[in-house]
Amino acid sequence: MTTAVLSHLSQLRSALRLDADGAAGGLQVLSTDPAELEIVRADKSGHASSAAPIGIVHARSIDDVQATLRVANALGIPVVTRGAGTGLAGGAIAGAGELVLSTLRMNRVLEISVDDELAVVEPGVLNGDLNAQLVPHGLWFAPDPASRAISTIGGNIATNAGGLLCAKYGVTREAVLGLKIVTAAGDLLSLGHRTVKGVTGFDLTALLIGSEGTLGVIVEATVKLRPLPAGPVATIGAYFETVEQAARASAVITASRLKPAIMEILDARALDAIDAYLGLALGGRGAYLLVQFDGLGAPQEADQAVPIIRSLGGDATLSRDPEEGERLFAIRRSFHPAMERQGTVLIEDVSVPRSRLPAMFAAVTDIERRFDVTIATVAHAGDGNLHPNFVFPGSEVPPKVWEAADELFRTCLRLGGTLTGEHGVGLLKRRWLREELGDVQFELQHKIKRLFDPNDILNPGKVF
Amino acid sequence: MTTAVLSHLSQLRSALRLDADGAAGGLQVLSTDPAELEIVRADKSGHASSAAPIGIVHARSIDDVQATLRVANALGIPVVTRGAGTGLAGGAIAGAGELVLSTLRMNRVLEISVDDELAVVEPGVLNGDLNAQLVPHGLWFAPDPASRAISTIGGNIATNAGGLLCAKYGVTREAVLGLKIVTAAGDLLSLGHRTVKGVTGFDLTALLIGSEGTLGVIVEATVKLRPLPAGPVATIGAYFETVEQAARASAVITASRLKPAIMEILDARALDAIDAYLGLALGGRGAYLLVQFDGLGAPQEADQAVPIIRSLGGDATLSRDPEEGERLFAIRRSFHPAMERQGTVLIEDVSVPRSRLPAMFAAVTDIERRFDVTIATVAHAGDGNLHPNFVFPGSEVPPKVWEAADELFRTCLRLGGTLTGEHGVGLLKRRWLREELGDVQFELQHKIKRLFDPNDILNPGKVF
């Protein structure tokens, strides 16, 4: 370690009132353990930084976050805020000279208000843990990234996480009423409201949601809860000869003004992989459409959806039995583990207007052929969000995969879409951001970043 | 007019390619007609500026907006963007030396996409007009300010308008996917997406929503549509002896995980006024609770709500007949016309966490007595948003009304609420804004304003 780094760590220990080992009361707060530093070089994107960061602060409290940022801001130490590290865009990856600020230990549910249908949580609470605590109250925090069992609410908010239920229940932004954040200078700000409505000044809560650690550190969130949907779900699983047919069926379901909670499409290559993984005989099927309705209207809605699916060539099974429904769902749930058995996976995240879903699927097939790459795709069809999964051998992303991804992004923008529906920009999408935003907006966003963080210490090099 | 004003108007005419009368092709684009200028001194808040502005640009297109702002920015002319002028916080009031930029003529619905459940509209489209065009498609733009028949979508967005349906369907922010805005410098920016999901960079769409004309001019909006709720509504009207009882019933309905589309409370003084207006015999009743359920689950939900209401002292009538339901609703709809017959009305707009609704109602009664003022209150009970209506004779707001309003705001903040739920800050709430935001956030918001508008030409003196 250089003298500068040693001095930085020493000042952090002092500001956090730690002993010479970085501990307090037997608890390691500032860690320089090489094994720990190795972990935070990567996230779930498969990407890793080229060197380890200088240390990790395991914040215990808002005070710790403020103290850390005051020192970092004064000394110009770049700070990478990190929850569970489940991100898929490299946003929480830390490299040489950087300090990781982990919020994982700030994991208390501070309040559940049944009357006001809200919860106040620290950022390190896992999405699944909050939901487990809410079940007895008949309540539910709707954002449902596929990682919900292992991802933190702070991370969900920092990336404006999506998931399977967004077409009906919205993204994370719709479920956050207010935030406490610590600014780069170490100030504590309360943004937003405890109320359903509120229009006092600019909506900084929304500005922070999805800002990927570049504007401030989320230290507390007041989140909106919903009543758990009443009654059993109704689930439909349907096979099609082509993925375009499945995409058309999903479009007609939406256009029929039905509102599934979940509507997912798996393409043929995804089914092949699941086939190998589960030992099923799905092979040779062109696509799978999974549709699930919830709430009091579920049976009626499902009864309307089945004839639509069949009229468009789908071989549909409908079940109102939860166990049978879960079996229809299991095919979708097996997608990610099945992919991991195929090789190294780069998960992309393009989003197009729903009506362009068939065109985007066709483009993926075309790109796969032209660039000689393997792409298996799952789509949240209700909201037009596709996850083309590039699969390749070895641990390095081959150049042709990046070239194919580049073509994928440009196609998506041409179709009126966006290059990341729910994973964020992080490190991996930076090079296309300016293209989507345009120069004037890109500069304006950059100026907002500088306004919040004049010394550029908050997750520098990410997003922009 | 001063020489400077004459020169400013001349440069505007030139930039907009108008003749010496401010017209083009027989259409008046830049107007200095005193009668028109008189109208834009006021909005629906009852407040008016002390002098007329210098002129009104009736923008026909985005080009007109850009040309106007370029001139205004270069010359330092303050610009007040205005839709239909139905605001209740003075946000669109224009005074001496200011230029009004009206978007009322930009009133085309540019696109309705049934497949993508979205519409693209110019800012001057009336909320009610868009909804009338959507009915044949079975679609619906959910934001429903009480002014929806006469207010523009641009204005709804600029104030993040609420309404009666927000507890179930959200505020305007939840219904906007993307915006085109013109910046103070005259640049055209496309913010947001046509897609349901999208996390590329900071959410400037949300930042602009509710910014009350201080950050940019909204020239186009891509809004999210919903399927019209299926089936007939189920409506409950219930009288209570006290408003606290009605508030408790509404809280228990929410806590029972029911989700009314509408849940409104009128207090005794409101009922007295409606009594006089409609010639009914409501007098002496303590409060009225109106609850309406929609969607496929409406009958079941209403059947669960009635016993709750009765067990808490409510004299409840349930109807699934639309006409009978409309009669139960008519009492609520008569509130504003009934109030206007009582005298001059100042409509306030505080919002508290739902559970504090009984406490806030009690505080209103107490303030009415202590300050010797008359307050009739209607509340959107599902989201804790109260509109205490101060009534007084004459056209000037008496000092004791302002003192009472001041106490009202402070009480609301103490109860964890916000000083404006849905009307905005405008001119009338400025003096309390810093108190709610705190100094550090207030300064940060002000810096954002300066970043977007360095010459302070966009609605200066409003909000901040």
Radius of gyration of chain A: 23 Å
| Total helical segments of chain A | 16
Number of strand segments of chain A: 21
CATH superfamily of the largest domain in chain A: FAD-linked oxidase, cap domain/gating helix
Q: Spans of chain A of 5+ residues with little confidence (pLDDT < 50)?
A: none
Which overall shape of chain A is indicated by the principal axes computed on the Cα atoms?
globular
**Share of β-strand residues of chain A:** 15-25%
CATH level-1 class of the largest domain in chain A: Alpha Beta
Q: Please report the two chains with the greatest interface, counting residues with C-beta closer than 8 angstroms to the partner's C-beta.
A: A-B, 90 and 90 residues
Write down the domain tally of chain A. 3
Oligomeric grouping of the chains? homodimer
Determine the fraction of residues in helical runs of chain A and give it as a percent range: 25-40%
Structure description:
Helices cover 35% and strands 21% of the residues of chain A. Chain A is an alpha+beta fold. The first copy, chain A, has 3 domains: 3-102, 2-Layer Sandwich (Uridine Diphospho-n-acetylenolpyruvylglucosamine Reductase, domain 2), CATH 3.30.43.10; 109-227, 2-Layer Sandwich (Uridine Diphospho-n-acetylenolpyruvylglucosamine Reductase, domain 3), CATH 3.30.465.10; 234-414, Vanillyl-alcohol Oxidase, Chain A, domain 3, CATH 3.40.462. In chain A, the strands form 5 sheets. In chain A, strands 14, 15, 16, 17, 18, 19, 20 and 21 form an 8-stranded antiparallel β-sheet that branches. In chain A, strands 7-8-12-10-11 form a 5-stranded antiparallel β-sheet. In chain A, a hairpin with a 5-residue loop joins strand 10 and strand 11 (188-192). In chain A, helix 8 packs antiparallel against helix 13 (357-370). The model of chain A has no long low-confidence stretch (mean pLDDT 95). Chains A and B meet through strand 11, helix 7, helix 8, helix 15 and helix 16 of A and strand 11, helix 7, helix 8, helix 15 and helix 16 of B. Chains A, B: Pfam families: FAD-oxidase_C (PF02913), FAD_binding_4 (PF01565). Chains A, B: It comes from Lysobacter korlensis. Chains A, B: Residues 49-228 form the FAD-binding PCMH-type domain. Chains A, B: InterPro entries: FAD-bd_oxidored_4_C, FAD-bd_PCMH, FAD-bd_PCMH-like_sf, FAD-bd_PCMH_sub2, FAD-linked_Oxase-like_C, FAD-linked_OxidoTrans_Type4, Oxid_FAD_bind_N, Vanillyl_alc_oxidase_C-sub2.
